[in-house]
């Protein structure tokens, strides 16, 4: 959920460790009308657009959906404040009145707080619970009554609460202070098994509460980590950052499989259009192989000039969504039966911060265009993102 066009090119390079100028035809290039013919890895090795990574090792020969009777998910993001407050009534009515059928609810939020009271010792050992959702059992009954498919969102490695309580599980500066990004947020260390187990404990309780799917977000190192790693103090192993992140995903899947819940992961939308982002430890294909659902965040506002041959991506939602899904299929088709359900996050907000002439007001037409692009690329599921949980009415879902 990273923003602002004025530094999108710099942010892209910071996040992925890839020079935008090297990105080729899969992404439409970075300069309008001048896309290079190929993509390059950071060391300059040519790669076919869309990627060609082969399936990794150490996984089962076939995926088995733990929720084979699940509906085709069409859902919305719901904060814990909304889930535990008056807005929930409006959101349930939206479910009742439309083809939307699912909610992704914060169970461990962007700050790192557990969003409801819990007596789970494994969670409280490291975590801190709030009472945003005062009665989780009542909420689950309410969702069941309205036939809402419940998905628990667990923010993993962006965890300011845990980083402050246990600096040894985070990244510290030489003076011992906990590192923060420009938004005063801290991350915890993906190399630490203790961090893995804490988040798995949260996920396991969510499964026992009745959530059908666990959606992990911020499954990565901080943005631009490769440029700051040498200046920070943290525990690490001989594994690469990609191996550490993929290791967590694989472990989560193994731990949650006996509980019969799906495992999904949010990932940067343009991850489908570029080589692996070694800097933050995200490899689109390796993560996808190990999950039941992959949710690329393909908000048109988050692409900079030139992607998919569009000058202002926010103003052409159909082209951006279609291009991103074509790239996603190209990246994942080679892994065959390992290919997860593709369920992207799409944009239901207006990106006015992009500045005059670079954005449009998003409403029914823009939502319809994104959904049509998904249908045209044979993607049947999607999630709507609006940070305030105010969703556009009368959309052709």
From TrEMBL:
Q: Where are the residues of the annotated region Disordered?
A: 26-72
The cross-references to InterPro entries, in alphabetical order and at most eight, read: DUF4015, GH
Q: Do you know which Pfam families this protein is assigned to?
A: DUF4015 (PF13200)
What name appears for this protein in its UniProt entry? DUF4015 domain-containing protein
Query: Taxonomically, which superkingdom?
Result: Bacteria
Q: Using the record's annotation, list all stretches that form the DUF4015 domain.
A: 75-391
- Tell me what organism the protein belongs to: Paenibacillus plantiphilus
Q: Which Gene3D superfamilies match?
A: Glycosidases
